Amino acid sequence: MPNHRRIILSMYMTLDGFNEFPVYPGSGDPPASVEDPISTEMWVKRWGSVDTLLFDRRTYEEWAEFWPTSKRTPGEHPWYRQMSEFAEKAQKAVLSDSRVPATWKNSRVLAGDVGASVARLREEDGKNVVVVAPDLGRELMRRGLIDEYLFAICPVILGKGRQFFGEMEGQQTLRLVEAKHFKGGELFLHYETAR
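Predicted structure:
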């Protein structure tokens, strides 16, 4: 029987829907000796059930520039090294019709129709797939291809930046799986698509 991996969108955003990381009281990394609760909810708890990261060209290039373990520094929060080790091991699929220098370990480029590429990924052997590219996530959302949504919402109305949500042809109804709040005012929201 086919595997049917789930497609999960993981997105950090402001209250007004911008995919940005604003500065506000309580923002930033906790002390190195303290667990980062938002990163734990968004990533650490899911590392065992995810083995593929899904990118568009722009986000792949951003992540390939920042996340390899060789880019880590001793002074940063330990979570960055842990996340970089996860990202190194994960399969990285880039949906793009343009030439992408997929030089980061375990990377491949998938050209052609986005829907067909996602359908192929869904049927491959493996664990779940996490979409980390805002523009691609918006396109997959419009097509009804997202199974789960993970949102970390910052307590900021920013007013400008990289807007995540846009107009869609129809409503999509979600089912709340989990909600948590943190001392800095952030929210973690986990939804499933109601089918």
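Summary: Residues 7-193 form a domain with the Dihydrofolate Reductase, subunit A fold (CATH 3.40.430.10).
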